[in-house]
Design goal:
- This protein has a single domain, classed as Ureohydrolase domain (Arginase, Chain A, 3-Layer(aba) Sandwich).
- Strand 6, helix 7 and strand 7 form a beta-alpha-beta unit.
- The protein contains ten helices and nine strands.
- Helix 3 crosses helix 10, helix 5 packs parallel to helix 6 and helix 9 packs parallel to helix 10.
- The chain is α/β, with parallel strands linked by helices and about 300 residues long.
- The chain starts with about 20 loop residues before the first helix and ends with a helix.
- The structure holds N-(iminomethyl)-L-glutamic acid and manganese (II) ion (2 copies).
Length: about 300
């Protein structure tokens, strides 16, 4: 790991002290044993998106998220660490996922709450693998995977991609003798074939459709998250930015024609964070090449901030 993209941590300076704190003036490079806090770990990859025939460019997502986080004001004391990036080079996705998993497990063992900065949604299997390593691969723990996404990412294919993450997790959980626990929120009927809906039903996936995720239904949405979190030992939250409307999140591989509103996504994120079960979260699919005026990066950064600052 390297303290790459350190140049991303720069911004407005209104003076010293906690009253003027922002991310860029607070965050430090991570070193083991410096106390529990929240640690960022980037996954500079879009190989999964390339394999899934999407629009590449997400590998510069971690740096763009750091740049958008930099100026966000901090109203409470926070122990923030940056553990750098794991970069996927030369189409070596599986090796990169393994490297990310090892680095993540080290951060979790050090007592950090961790946030992965994607990268394509192939970060999901890397995140899951790191959590499993930290918890003990053969253990009897239960992990709930909560995905905010327009897509199930349950594709079954010869090679891993940004669209196969939860099928890979289902297989790994079955091999370890555990039950696959997956809740997907924001799923679009228009963007997932019947094959994928049938696979989700076979795997017992709990689903909230995009059309159900609106402010008029917010209590039910919060209840869905709380109930899912209450049913597992540990919760892993993954946010695919293509769950949001294309007007809010244009900088993704597959912009949403419908999408769920930011108020609802934030309510889900805060409910997950406040559940007391959240062990790790990540944010995926930011593609700065297609962003407009940092819209998607700023939205993603705000969600990362609110996730970390609302921990239960
Ligand atoms: N990360 C997942 N992506 C979607 C991509 C859909 C698309 O490119 O239209 C999926 O595989 O279903
Ligand atoms: Mn998606
Ligand atoms: Mn996805």
């Amino acid at each position: 790991m390297t303290w790459k993209d350190a140049g991303s941590w720069a911004g407005r300076d209104d003076g010293p002290g906690a009253q003027n704190a922002r991310w860029h003036s607070t965050i430090k490079p991570w070193k083991a044993g410096e106390g529990a806090g929240s640690a960022l770990l980037g996954f500079a990859s879009d190989e999964g998106v390339r394999r899934n025939k999407g629009r590449t460019g997400a590998k510069t997502g971690p740096g763009a998220l750091r740049a958008a986080l930099s100026n966000i004001s901090l109203h409470e004391p926070a122990n923030l660490f940056d553990a750098g990036d794991i970069a996927v080079e030369d189409r070596e996705l599986e090796a990169g996922q393994e490297e990310f998993a090892n680095a993540l497990a080290g951060l979790l063992r050090d007592g950090q709450f961790t946030v992965g900065l994607g990268g394509g949604h192939e970060i999901t299997f890397a995140s899951y693998s790191g959590i499993a390593k930290a918890l003990g691969a053969d253990g009897h723990w239960s992990l709930g995977c909560l995905n905010i996404d327009a897509h199930f990412d349950l594709r079954v294919a010869e090679t891993a991609s940004s669209g196969t993450g939860f099928a890979q997790i289902a297989e790994a959980e079955a091999a370890a003798g555990r039950t696959f626990r997956y809740a997907a929120v924001g799923i679009s009927e228009a963007s997932n074939t019947k094959v994928l809906f049938d696979r989700a039903a076979e795997l017992g996936v709990q689903v909230l459709l995009d059309t159900e995720c609106h402010l008029g239904n917010i209590d039910a949405v919060r209840g869905f998250v709380a109930e899912f979190a209450g049913s597992v030992d540990h919760l892993y939250l993954t946010i695919d930015l293509d769950a949001l409307p294309a007007s809010v999140a244009p900088g993704v591989s597959a912009p949403a024609g419908y999408g769920i509103g930011l108020e609802v996504v934030r309510a889900i994120v805060v409910a997950a964070s406040a559940s007391g079960k959240l062990i790790h979260a990540d944010i995926a699919e930011l593609n700065p090449d297609f962003d407009i005026d940092q819209r998607t990066a700023r939205t993603g950064a705000r969600l990362v901030n609110d996730l970390i600052m609302n921990r239960g």
